[in-house]
Specification:
binds coenzyme A; 7 strands; 3 helices
């Protein structure tokens, strides 16, 4: 089926974030204070929103956050298609650095997009993260 990528409202991103990332927490847990200032992108399969990611631009570069694909749609390349698109968007918005707080089990995935591990690690909500970045 044909897939398309579009900017979406934050509310649409929230649905997938909650369903995929933190289904056991209350719905508000996945909302970010910065969501009003962010750019939210979604990949649609037909009319169905299957993958989302949000981009936040500041002086430290472009940070992507809350990247999630519906469980039954994972491993089909949707996340990769969306992430490649959003990294180009970050560049065209003038960012010189793209970065993320990567879940430790996603490090190899992000390396495929040219992101490299920094030496900044932390734990949040019982999960381990490392900051990864790419200079554009
Ligand atoms: C991270 C996440 C968004 C990736 O989305 P996705 O749509 O599954 O991404 P892709 O399908 O492009 O890639 C996933 C894997 O499938 C592989 N893949 C991509 N296309 C494929 C295809 N056509 N056939 C087989 N495998 C494929 C990719 O190489 C990748 O492998 P890897 O995990 O071993 O590196 C998704 O796994 C997810 O929502 N995870 C839970 C939330 C989360 O962890 N978010 C990230 C926080 S840092």
């Amino acid at each position: 089926m044909k897939t398309t990528i579009a900017k979406i409202d934050k509310e649409m991103a929230w649905e997938i974030r909650h369903k995929v990332m933190w289904p056991d927490r209350n719905f508000d847990y996945i909302k970010l204070e910065d969501d009003d200032a962010g750019f939210h992108y979604g990949l649609f399969k037909g009319d169905l929103l299957v993958s989302v990611v949000s981009l936040f631009i500041n002086q430290r570069g472009a940070q992507f956050r809350k990247f999630a694909t519906l469980q039954q749609e994972q491993g089909m390349g949707h996340g990769s298609t969306l992430l490649s698109y959003v990294m180009k968007e970050a560049e065209s918005l003038g960012a010189e650095r793209v970065w993320c707080n990567a879940r430790k089990n996603k490090v190899d995935f992000y390396k495929k997009f040219g992101l490299q591990e920094t030496d900044i690690f932390f734990t949040k909500g019982g999960k381990s993260y490392v900051i990864m970045e790419k200079r554009i």
